[in-house]
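residues and backbone:
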Amino acid sequence: MYPSRPGLIIGFHGCDEPVRNAIVANDTMLKASRNGYDWLGSGLYFWENNYERALDFAIHPPGNKQIRFPAVLGAVIDLQFCLDLTETKYIHLVKRSYENLRSVTSKFHMKLPENKKLPGSNDLLLRELDCAVIENLHEERKLENKKAFDSVRGMFIEGRSIYEGAGFHDKTHVQLCVRNPNCIKGLELRTEHCSVLVRNLRFARLYRDRNYNGVSQHAIMSEPTLHRLAPSDRLHRTGYPVHPGYYLPHGGSPFAGYIE
């Protein structure tokens, strides 16, 4: 039996407002990030329970990316089988993946990628080595016919000390990288001042990433029926948190998974 992380958590994704609205309206799909410097490898990225960091990311996007109307998309997430890098056993898996990758690159006289800083920052913002190590772990598990991870979770100490001699930093956060779109159980429109109900939310057929566990890109799941979780007794029976702002499907994934 493979362990799963119990319960649902809230994640926030910073993006352009028209993009957020189109995702909620089911006119487009949130695409997986596949940059070679992604901190937790390829997948759909969220800030765990951190609206402010998601909004800051949208206001100050990295590199030359421009976002005209910064906005935040909220999501209810079940991490399922999670590569949680706050747990020792999973840290050991990643360390072993690094050792295997180093051995292979050395054998073929190749150079390992490196994590790099950007000008004006003391943080390793370009995580090419970490990304390669995590992706290598996923590939090793696939070759060994082991269960694929549905998500990756990591805590990062980032930014400046919040006071002299502090062990706390102003940008410390938890990132979530969702590899299996079925982990996303609901969506939420969030503003700085309130949570907006997602009304008449339509859930499309699910397109699973062709790189997730060998499943074809065009594997399709039929459209689930909308099911608003409003009565508290119904929420308790289903195990979902008591929150009137979420619409979840009855017996299916609520998220139009990502494709390239």
In short: The chain has a mean pLDDT of 77.
